């Protein structure tokens, strides 16, 4: 199961209702301010939203293998997850303070962060509460606020696309200084770039719905790409929406000094074979040579020095191979370097791959090869760990010139998605899982006898138990209209149909 701080709507409503109880005056400190500048909320929102480093995502996408115990994520046996509306509640608070203090830029950043969060929630479940959610935070304790209806995924995406456009159109220098911004230091243009790039990600995630006239996906996509003056996009890795880490308490890389990462995580065999097949030098910064390769004196830049474990194999088989010295652990930098690399939530290489896919699908005109090679080049520049000797700038150009890397007619989308997938190693959260679920590329290996869920890769998570207990009518209606087989991890949500 995905490791998040999880909140149900009912829990949030309970918090709001508790303030109405007859003895609440005993719990209120009159010296504690109930109002605050919206900037005080912003940094916490950014730190939560843009923390995208996840070993669980690596297990689910066949990049990593866990050897300490049988992981339900790795073996595709997960069940329920929780809603993360607690994150949206913090955004609502920022919006409320923005209105009170007449600082509209925080309101429009709120539109972006609401969209960012609800997209993550609906990608996991399908239909979820949105239009009636969070009303208790505005002192609305009606039945609809306490037990909100479930919006259709189509309606959620329509609202998201409209809100993202509003945010980009409305952010301006006249909207006030954005203080306490740990991502872009208050630069409105940089925020517009990130929001518009995220909009393209959302639109591409709806590729199966390109004929939907309600959402008008291809036209929206073109409106952004064809008008860079109005809708600027990320222009380099320097523009990435990212969290940068520092060797300070509370600011270090999230897996720094993790004993589990030091001993329990290895590269997946299918991932290693993919990188070897492409002669991709990122293998040298993602993993470490096997102990047997080190003993044999092989160079860390020798592809033969690397081998992986099989994510679908029984854990005993993987432990045996690991103990025999035939497996590459995750690179030591992920556990030993306090700074390591930034957590990228919205990145320039991803944008280039999105544009390449859009060109391949005929959504836009443009040089598909230029987008594709730019995506790879900038992904490799990002992964070229602090400019060390793992691979050189010349190695990047050599890689790009290989026939196995060059785009081929008939396999363009497959190749684009493979490169987008490689770029997500230990970054950008679960995005590579969602993209593989949408396109089928790359193929995730499931042949081993350790597999759960009948050997199938789940397509979603089941709804939270709290919702079944406290909002049963609405969640039951949502299940019936979406999933004829019931609330099941193999149900196919609207955007995948």
TrEMBL record:
This is SusD-like starch-binding protein associating with outer membrane. Gene3D superfamilies: 1.25.40.390. InterPro entries: SusD-like_2, TPR-like_helical_dom_sf.
